[in-house]
Amino acid sequence: MTDAATLADRVQSGDLRLYELEAHADAETAATARRLILERETDAELETVGSYSFDAGQAADANIENGIGGAQLPMGVAGPVRINGGAADGEFYLPMATTEGALVASVNRGLSTIDAAGGATARVTDSGMTRAPVFRVEDVAEAEHVIDWVNANLEALKAAAESTTSHGELLDIDPSVVGDNVYLRFVYDTKDAMGMNMATIATREAATVVEAETPAELVALSGNLCSDKKPAAVNAIKGRGRTVTADVCIDRELVEERLNTTPEAMAEGNTRKNLVGSAKAVSLGFNAHAANTVAAMFLATGQDAAQVVEGSNAITTMDVREDGLYASISFASLEVGTVGGGTKLPTQQEALNVLGLAGSGDPPGKNADALAEVIAVGALAGELSLVAAFCSRHLASAHEELGR
């Protein structure tokens, strides 16, 4: 095999391209060669980028192209907190990877309050990963014919889609027509996988059947009605990934002691900020900062970070109840998995092991459901802490105290 310096020379001379290096050396050497090229051409020093613990070959096979090393993030832990979930049941520490100072401290304060109140309740109420191809038809009459055929042949399409996977299950096909466009929104149970790739491959097989049996012509395997990694009302209404809610009741004394405010102030602050303010902004997320916890736990546990877009699609509610505070957060489209993708990387595996949720659950899908419930409880804690900080006017002073 060729050494890194020789590979770097060949790339810079035009003899090789950056993406061809793994054909001439192992992944570790290829990454070293790319760092050397960058150091030569940019005057950057990449010693820290070159210090990582994952297997470069595994990452090159599943996670990255043109690899040069690793990006490190500080990881903290919040908790423990008691969760009374449909899948997550017990005490949990929450691993969080972030560069935002005060975030883990804020979530930890919320979790401490929740735990003192007896823990949070959480439930996944719906689950389904989607992929929505768009087909070209001649006119609306032909569109109607295609949809009638799809509705009459769901079992054939189910068989075609599921022939590509040993785990995925086609649950539904939701059609939409826009002029001479037919969109078919396929919905899958992907068990413990986040399932985007699984849904894409399965839908490609089913789309081939639609093309063969109807006048429809496939234009794009994703027609954006899925909708992936973009703010979208369809996901807020119909869900994508896990639809999950967490809630808690906190006695007045605890609100005053732990959050330095009152149930009345919390409820009013939430309504005026998270509900009315978000409505005025025409936001798809009616919450304070749910994306903060989602992003930190996604990075820690190997989720697709771009899907934090859908993960911020959440509604926070707070009400005064029986001389205490009722608080909840409801996520419409939290896309998570405990197998596949970035969950295989070693630090992400360790974070999932902290949660006790690495790998496949028993029954299949239980671990991913539990992860969704844990993230929801973490986000609820973050909402409680931040709304309390606004209500007690401590937000700026907290950042100042922590030096952020």
Characterize this entry briefly:
The protein has 404 residues and is α+β, with helices and mostly antiparallel strands. The protein has 15 helices and ten strands. Strands 1, 2, 3, 4, 5, 6, 7, 8, 9 and 10 form a ten-stranded mixed beta sheet that branches.
Task: Describe what you observe in this structure.
The chain has about 400 residues and is α+β, with helices and mostly antiparallel strands. The protein has three domains: about 25-70, no CATH class; about 75-125 and about 240-400, 3-hydroxy-3-methylglutaryl-coenzyme A Reductase, Chain A, domain 2 (Alpha-Beta Complex), CATH 3.90.770.10; about 135-220, Alpha-Beta Plaits (2-Layer Sandwich). About 45% of the residues lie in helices and about 20% in strands. It has helices spanning about 5-10, 25-40, 55-60, 105-115, 140-150, 155-160, 195-215, 235-240, 250-260, 265-280, 290-300, 310, 345-355, 365-390, 395-400, and strands at about 75-85, 90-95, 120-130, 135, 170-180, 180-190, 215-220, 240-250, 315-320, 325-335. Strands 1, 2, 3, 4, 5, 6, 7, 8, 9 and 10 form a ten-stranded mixed β-sheet that branches. A hairpin with a 2-residue loop joins β5 and β6. α1 packs across α2 (about 25-40) and α4 (about 105-115) packs antiparallel against α9 (about 250-260).
Ordered list of secondary-structure elements with their pairings:
Layout: H1 4-12, H2 27-42, H3 56-62, E1 75-85, E2 89-97, H4 103-116, E3 120-131, E4 134-136, H5 140-152, H6 154-162, E5 169-178, E6 181-189, H7 196-213, E7 217-220, H8 233-238, E8 241-251, H9 252-259, H10 263-280, H11 290-301, H12 308-311, E9 314-321, E10 324-334, H13 346-355, H14 366-391, H15 395-401
Parallel strand pairs: 1-3
Antiparallel strand pairs: 1-2, 3-6, 3-8, 4-6, 4-7, 5-6, 8-10, 9-10
Helix pairs in contact: 1-2, 4-9, 4-14, 6-7, 10-14, 11-14
